[in-house]
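protien #1 (seq + structre)
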Amino acid sequence: MTMTKQQRVLYRQGTGFWRMTAKWVLVFGALALLDGLLRSWGNALVWPVIGIVLWVPFGIGVVWYSRKDQLVTLTTGELRLRRERLPMEEVNLLHVARLWLEGRSTADDRPVPEWTRSDRVVWVPLLDGRAYGVEFRDPAAFAEVFGAFAVAECGGPEAVRAKAAAAVYPQPRPMRVRSGGSGSGSGSGPDLLDVFG
């Protein structure tokens, strides 16, 4: 009987729907409370009604759907992007580990601390030289988990440095961004997601 090794979940990102909804309720609830204190509680009841009316066309249709986060799950065996699966055997973990130990990440080698809120893409390098960009709500948090996992899988910091000095592999070439949004490029500009997302 063959036993399959259970994959441990290292990082998971949802679509952000319930986070947006909670913030929507908080904003319109605060407006109702403020209106009730300043004018009357009868007038305050208007704000929850406005919030409910606008929630579907504007909250879901504009704020959330156009910039919804990609469903991403990182396990010890694969990276799942919605229904797509990328086995770790195809990922250049040595390159990820080397860059992480040097304080860098992604295919463009930018230092992680220099990332801004609008830079949502983390590049995942493959052994064949390609690199796919995946959008994250908090790219630095994913990069930290992914980098630490890569270092551990490669045998630790010293083993990574030794292997990197001897290894020869193609420099990753950015291909395309796997995103839930409709925009293209390496990041998403500031929008209402910063308020309600």
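ok now protien #2
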Amino acid sequence: MLSELGVESTGSAQECGDALETAMTGKPAGEKAPTAPTERLPDAQSRNFEKAVSAFTKDAGPETADIPDTIRGNMANAVTYYTDDVFQILGGHVDHSEESYSTTPNDIDLDRSTVLAFLRPLAQDEKAFDSIRASVFHRIDSDIATLDKADLTTAPRQAPGEATGDKATGVARESGRVTGTLRKLSGEAITARHGQGTEERMTALERDAQRFGLPRLRQAFLAHAARVGVSGPPGSGSRLGGVLDTAESTYGLGSGGY
């Protein structure tokens, strides 16, 4: 694979992983990506990211890539340099492999199933996968921060025959789906690690949910609502309650069973 990316490395597996990560990011292996927003990388790195993801998933079947344990940390760190792009792929409803649509800022042309197959083995390395989920939550927090008090208290009014954008619902829908999708991958890894029906599994799942699951997502919305002056718990039928219900619904669709 390294030769396909124009990289020469004949060292250890870790040295090859470092070289591959650098080819995908243009940075020294292990260097942390900026938190938010995702920066546009040179086209050569973006194309290398596409090639690496595609190569790892090409021969491993539709569900999971074959990524050696040694370099999962490298691959997870590379993903954090493409957080906004990956977020759009996981949260969107289009095929990003189509020429008519790709991501910003790095113009990544990969479909959702390919990205999921690449991420699934990374979830088996808890530390590596945590770095991806933390980066995604930086993105989610940034999206939530764009909502003002009116967005969280009043639904947009729609004139007859006119389409109306609903920013808060859109943020809730997309963040819920992406958070749920990553929770599913983590839940699968936790179940494989501890076994179905064990107390250790339940404890690990609860810890995971608090850190990167629905409770964390709800708290992000509630904390921001308080900052912009939306007081009190969201009651049934309230605007904020509806936004949170949307986030929970799409989270459930993304997380499925594990």
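The chain has a mean pLDDT of 90.
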